[in-house]
Amino acid sequence: MARRSIPHRGLRDAHPFVRYAAAAAICVATNLAAQEAVVQAAPGAPLMVSIVIGTGVGFLVKHVIDKTWTFREPYITPAAEARRITLSGLFSVLTTVIFWGFELGFYVIWGTDAAKYTGAVLGLGIGYVVKYMLDRRMVFREATV
């Protein structure tokens, strides 16, 4: 008897939240790598310089991944794209407050880089869950998923 093949349901076909989580993991790594690159390149730079640069890099990467892969949002018009980027940016500011609060709070309490990065990962995780809910409902409304 021939074996019947089961269609592969990889990450590409996963629920948008699963893809969002995968994209978030990529962006957390990108954010922290950018922060560490700043620390290594300019060890005397203030802490906020590395945090701001890491956050900016993470936002750009995350928006592109979310639009093209997570939500599979079609391009409609320049005005619609501007609206999406603006809303996504505003929601990112809100969730960045959560992220930075955890990152800086852990650093202030424990005073180590390990604590800072632990707080960053926790804050980013919480922030990404909140941002997924906002993005799904308000930003990527024409998504094809």
UniProtKB/TrEMBL annotation:
Pfam families found in the cross-reference section: GtrA_DPMS_TM
Keyword Heme: no
Keywords, comma-separated and alphabetical: Membrane, Transmembrane, Transmembrane helix
Transmembrane feature ranges: 44-65, 85-109, 115-134
Membrane topology classification: Multi-pass membrane protein
Domain GtrA/DPMS transmembrane: 19-140
Domain of life: Bacteria
CC per GO annotation: membrane
Keyword Ribonucleoprotein: no
GO biological process, any: polysaccharide biosynthetic process
Main location per the UniProt record: membrane
Localization per record: Membrane
NCBIfam families: gtrA_1
Name of this protein: GtrA-like protein
The organism's taxonomic lineage, starting at the top: Bacteria, Pseudomonadati, Pseudomonadota, Alphaproteobacteria, Rhodobacterales
